[in-house]
Amino acid sequence: MTRVTSYCRTVLDRADVGYAVTDARGNLLWCNRALGAVLGVPVEQAYGRSLPALLPGVPEAPAPTREVLAPGPKWLEVRCSRLGDDLMYEVVDVSVWRDRELTVTQEADALRRAQALGRMGTWEWSISEDQVTWSDTLLEMFGFAPGTAFDFELYSRLVHPDDLPMIEETLDAALKTGSVFTYTHRMLRPDGKERVFECFGEVVVDDDGTPVRALGTAHDVTQSSRVHDELVRMAEQDPLTGLPNRRALTRALEQELANNGSGALLVLDLDNFKDVNDLRGHAVGDRVMRMLASALQSRLGDRLIARLGGDEFAVVLPGASLEDASGVADNLKEAVAGFPLAGIGTPARITVSTGLAEFGPGDSWELVLANADLALYASKAAGRDRVTVYEPNHYADTVKRVSVLDRLRSALAGGGLALYGMPMVELSTGTTLGHELLLRLEDGQEPYLGPADFLPVAERSNLILEVDRWVLSTAIDALVEEPDSRLRFNVNVSGRTLEDPDFGGFVLDKLGSAGVAPGRLGLEITETAAVTNLDAAVTLATQLRSFGCRITLDDFGSGFGSFVHLKHLPITGIKIDGEFVKGIETSDADAVLVSGIVQIANGLGLSAVAEWVERPSQVEALKKLGVRVGQGFHLGRPVPLRDVVNAERMPPNGALSSRVVGAEDGARS
Q1: What is the average pLDDT across 127-143?
Q2: CA distance 458 to 497
Q3: What average pLDDT does range 157-186 have in this prediction?
Q4: Integer Cα distance of 597 and 527 in angstroms
Q5: Which ranges in 338-462 belong to alpha helices (H)?
């Protein structure tokens, strides 16, 4: 059996197909040499690294064969299957096959053009005489007149210098084996235009097997090459700024770590960028973002800077010491602070907060990014516009963050999440008109984590996308269970989910398959999230509202320029931020503001709900100002979703009794 096992390992190591085994999180436990070659990392250094980070696009769970476009570029077919508690990957490089498919198409097109125009680029090399004969058509394709004296030396001078060694190696190999060959190269024509040619050829040998001549064809594939390059660019480039995106950054960082590199990572967040959007609109904001990105890049030379999303950037500094990295961070901070905004027509001043984390052998890209994020949080907490270096005593916070994500993942898989319904009550009658659904973590573990503990952590990872879909699905299932049309739910949508282009279709598919009237479901989007992702918020709200869903702007009034946003967002209602409500009986300013909000809402045909209603006196004050619906601990505490669904009736429920709930309880969940 030992001999058989040894044979199996030898066969796998010599195989052209890449094989790998990872744990459930995608960390490499084993891979063969073929996969190491695809990853560009020695096998012994690949172990423990994240396969999805080294090879973006691979499935992270068992899945049928899918195609992945890898750096290089290479076309790969990847299949993931379960192997006990682990995952097994089979990776096949199909680039040659894809190229041959493309070749067939190009050759067919070339034949059609040859029939119409008589153009076919061919060449023949007499090896014994070392003389190359080029067809007139090929000479014209190269930018020369027919009959031009054109030898291999001149051809070599026109070929892109990075491609010439590959051509020479390919020809040398073909002469030794007598086989067919192909290569693609760039050429700078005499007119200064760069073209891309795909060449196919074969070697002719005599009876002794000695090569006597080689002949082939050349096809101009510039256009298809540009399309291919554009696909690669789109996969790893931020469309607004043209900088590399998060995917490109994590791949570069993981590659550096896999090769035992050391250095530093900077994470930068523009402090007051929202003011530009508020004052001048998103078109101007986009222009300023592009200009800022260019200014930052100009200070970095050839070092990698990526836009992570929103107003956040990251810089990888391989080999940089702490002192060097701090100097780079200060230089970037000065570039942002000195950025001229006066000509843009806004007095807003933009500054940048920076987190700096060192990295070295043994680190993972997730840990490095988390450390830099923690340092960035510290910069924000200390007053912004500063650089903070990650310190080892922050590790406890990192562990807590990772632990929270682990608990959330387990809760999603094992039923540890629960929804509670908080009633929205008609102030004049005490009738419950609907419920806002609030998420709770009930996994039985200590310490207890409230929404404020786990939701911000989830929103900084892709896990929030799964959480939001779970909440939406659970809410719709509950509406199916209780078909009473008076039962209505509002669910909260995170800013990250707004950016998910498939979420709107997911909601409509769930409603359609469940047979639930769309008007029974409402989505609440915080004003901050909507403004930060305005285009995405408008797209989602338009899609769902046209289907009949309710769209509410939550925490209305909390952001600068709140009333401006009402022009752009196709919403059906607003929730008045609790800061205006908590002192409504005693503050004239709050009363004036709430009255104005109500009048505007009525004029636009929007519903208005007051939050943080915690005392009977607030109810009376709100009713006098024209507020019809309220929400808060005085009107009803959150109760488990099953109790909401199982209730036979929705009576006034004593919500307007004289019981006073302390302000510290709040309706701030």
Answers
A1: 83
A2: 11
A3: 89
A4: 14
A5: 365-381, 395-414, 451-459
